[in-house]
Structure formats: C-alpha cells, structure tokens
Design a protein that fits this description.
The structure is a single chain. By secondary structure, the chain is α/β, with parallel strands linked by helices. Among the domains are: 98 residues; 154 residues, no CATH class. It is built from 7 helices and 24 strands. Strands 1, 3, 5, 7, 9, 11, 13, 15, 16, 18, 19, 21, 22 and 24 form a 14-stranded parallel β-sheet that branches. Strands 2-4-6-8-10-12-14-17-20-23 form a 10-stranded parallel β-sheet, with no helix packed on it. α1 packs across α4, α2 crosses α5 and α4 crosses α7.
Length: 376
Amino acid sequence: MKKTILTACFMLLVLPLTASAYSLKKGDSVYVPKDEVIEGNLYAVGSTLTIEGKITGDVICAGQSININGEVTGDVICAGQSININGQIGGNLRLAGNSINFNGQTARNGIIMGATIVTAASSTIGWDLLILGNVFELRGDVGRDLYGSAGKVNIAGQIGKNLDLNFGAQNDYANPLTIADTAKINGDVKYKSAKDAAIGAGAIIKGKTIHNFPTVVARKSNLADLGWWWGKLISLFSALVIGLVLISFWREQIIKITDLMLKKIGPSLGWGILALLLTPLIVIILLITIIGIPLSLILLALWLIAMYAGKILAGILIGRSLLNNYWSKQKDSLILAMIIGIAIAYLIFALPIIGPFIALLAVLWGLGGIFLALKK
C-alpha cells in the first residue's frame, strides 16, 4: 500500500511535466552506457550516477557522485556531493553540490551552487550564469552575464556581457576577486567587497569597473543573547519530547529507519534531496487540479513533519552509535540513545556558520531514511 502511494505521488509529478516517455533509475550504482538512448526525461537516484549515453529530455538526479558525459537535449537538474559534467546540454544547467566541475557545453542558462565550482577552459554557457558558493573559477566562456555571491572568484575566461558579484562584508580572502591576464569581459565589472580586486595587466575589460563597499552593521553575538539561548533550549526540549513520543509508539520502526540511514548513507542523502525538492512541486500540481487540494494539504503536512523528524532521527542515530561503541551495556536503551544523541546533535546545530548546514544535512539524511523505509 505504501509503495503504491509513493508511486502515485511520483506519477503526479512526472506525467504533467511531459507527454513523452520517461525513465526512472535507482540503486547504489546507476549507469547509462554510450550506446543507450533514453527517450524523454530521466529521473535517477543513487550513490553513484554515470550517464554516458543520450537523453532526449531532461535529467533530474540526486546522488553522492554524479558524472554526466553524454548528451542531454533538455535541462540538467542535479544535486550531489561531487558533480562532474563533461557532456553537451541543450537546455539549462542547475546544479547543487559540494565539489562541481563543469567541462561541457550548455546552450542556455546556468545556476550553480557549491563549495568549490570550476568551469574548465573548454566549457561554454550560452546565456547567463548565476553562482552561489565559496570558491569559483571561470576558465571557460559565458555568453552573457555572470552574477552571484561567493567567497573568492577567479576569472580567466571570457564573459559576453557584464560581471556582477557580491563578496559580503566579512571575507577572509586577500583578493576576493581576481581577474587574470587571459580574461576578457565585454561589459562592466561590478563587485561589492571590502577589499580591492586583483586585475591583471593583460585583462580586457571593455566597460566600467565599479567597486562598491558593503555596509557593515554591528551585531550582538548570539552567544551573548539570552533570548537566543532560551530559544535553543526550548528547541532542544521540544525535540526530546517528540523523540520520546516517536520511540514510545514506533520503537521498531525507528530502529529500522536509523539502521537504513547508517547502512545506506549515500542513498539516504540522495532520496532526502529528491524528497525535499520534488514534494513542493507535487503539492503545487495537486493544488492546480482543484480536486487534489485536500490531498496536497495532507502531503504538505506530512512533508513538514518528516523534515522535522529527520533531525530527531539523525540525533537518535548518533546516540545509538555512541552507545554501541562506548557503552555496550546500554546499547539497547533507545531512550538513553535518544537523549544523548539529540542533545549532541542540537548542540552542533547551534554552532555558528556550520551549524545550519549540518542541520540541513541531518534533515536530508533523516528524510531519505524515512523514504527508504517506506519503500520497503
């Protein structure tokens, strides 16, 4: 029954998007060989995804390691830890990951979010490119505008029109923006940074160079804010109460879900990303159908509950792992594991800068574990 419901929800998403055929591939390793042609869209989820063949529609994927070396006539929308694109894309490029290397060609726009983003010298993006990340290197060509926000940007390739970047008020890099001698920018260079850009003598900039300084607003540290600490304490005790309820009613299911999360870390994160991104689309589609409004509201509520429970499940998993490794006599005490794990997890979530990112990973991890459990 649960599998049927999941399949129906997925069909509600994919069928309105295309009248042509589509393919769904999942597993620890997904491979499309060079001689294979997939008609329509490809939806893929797995630990390792490798596409060597031709896709006549869009590619929507999530995984730990993603490699697209073939031809995609539509858009590529992917999220993963490591993403390498070497093929030719006829539509738009939308990527989110930790390490992203683009060595291909996309005919339209690009949106890339990641910690480290590199576009190779042979790469081309036909229209505009939006970047959001830490370190970005442009060695290839962008047909029109390059804009976004980053910690450090190196420009060594060509930009068809304007460059517009924001480096924030607090930036530890000596030169957040570096424009190499080989760079060619056919429009204006506009950047917001507290530090000057390093522009090579051989760089070609046909428009104006505009340096805007960010406005620095002094803020009180969260660590010194009593209200902040009170809010974190309430969140912790709320999570403990909900964790106790989950354990009391669904002890065996919690054990199975956390076991799956630990055994299949990559697939759990992949399914978590897919559930996080696709569920709102399914809700919108159901809302449009009018008769699906009640189901869309139920699905939205379950989605929000599952995301909140994801962090709690991650905390329980941490506690179980600690008890198994360091206190084996109490390894069967799920309540003790829940208390220890959630306390540690929420302490980590409260850390500045990295805390929200780790919390997001915990949500994805737990959400994917719930999905894997429902599949079984």
